[in-house]
Specification:
Blueprint (H helix, E strand, L loop, with lengths): L1 H16 L3 H12 L6 H29 L2 H10 L4 H11 L5 H7 L10 H13 L5 E5 L6 E5 L10 H13 L4 H18 L10 H16 L7 H11 L1
Antiparallel strand pairs: 1-2
Helix pairs in contact: 1-2, 2-3, 4-5, 8-9, 8-10, 9-10
Length: 240
């Protein structure tokens, strides 16, 4: 039935091009019941059905977002996995009408223990990009500390002087050795995300941190056991 399958797929494509995806899906589902299709042909039809269903689901989701009012979108954001696309839609449609109560509701994502620090910082940057001026409650998922974070400030590593000085010196040290520079950056970024936004628990001065990270990287690439076991254990914990 190879020719019949080609005809079926051509008819399906015509319906899709004319924006009749529901009819195309019904046609495929109906034809799948035909016992004359080979197993290979059945699998091809099933694959087409799966792709169409996925498309229709995404299309329904987009329609929901476009039709939803402000309160509905905020509820969707908080109850359906903190989807970035929902947050984007909120700011796209209602940036000028968001009030303090709305921002407190949106800020729940920053208190959720199931969200990583890295993702929380992504949300903070989105708030800043949309020019939200608000002091949010922020819960560090790793350290358990809770504090205020003001979106009028930046959240890049460059804005934390102690870490930036060390990262800058490490980059200069390893600029001809890409792999070493990448590991050094990985360590510094891990420290940034781990302790955000309170680095009082980083008990090393900038000079000590630079020396110890540089030594750690050099020894790692020379397969030499770390010189400072306590520092090595600390880095291992942070990189987990």
């Amino acid at each position: 039935m190879e020719n019949n399958l080609k005809e079926l797929l051509l008819e399906t494509e015509k319906l899709i091009k004319s924006e009749q995806e529901d009819k195309a899906l019904d046609l495929l589902k109906s034809e799948l019941k035909n016992p004359l299709w080979s197993l290979k042909e059945q699998e091809e039809i099933k694959s087409k059905i799966s792709l169409l269903q996925k498309f229709l689901k995404q299309n329904d989701w987009a329609l929901r977002l476009n039709k939803a009012d402000k309160n509905t979108l905020i509820k969707m954001f908080n109850s359906e996995g903190y989807e970035i696309v929902v947050l984007d839609k909120i700011f796209e449609k209602f940036a000028d009408t968001l009030n303090k109560a709305d921002l407190i509701k949106l800020g729940q994502v920053l208190l959720d223990d199931s969200i990583s620090n890295e993702m929380k910082i992504t949300y903070l940057k989105m708030f800043k990009d949309y020019e939200v001026k608000h002091s949010f409650d922020y819960h560090n998922t790793i350290t358990g500390k809770t504090f205020k974070v003001d979106t009028r400030k930046d959240f890049n590593i460059e804005n934390f002087e102690k870490l930036f000085k060390v990262q800058d010196k490490l980059a200069a040290m390893f600029f001809k050795e890409t792999s070493k520079e990448q590991l050094a950056n990985q360590i510094m970024n891990a420290i940034y995300f781990y302790y955000f936004n309170d680095y009082s628990d980083v008990k090393y001065s900038s000079e000590e941190l630079f020396d110890k990270v540089a030594n750690y990287v050099e020894r790692a690439f020379n397969n030499i056991y770390p010189e400072d076991k306590k520092f090595s254990a600390w880095i291992s914990k942070i990189l987990q």
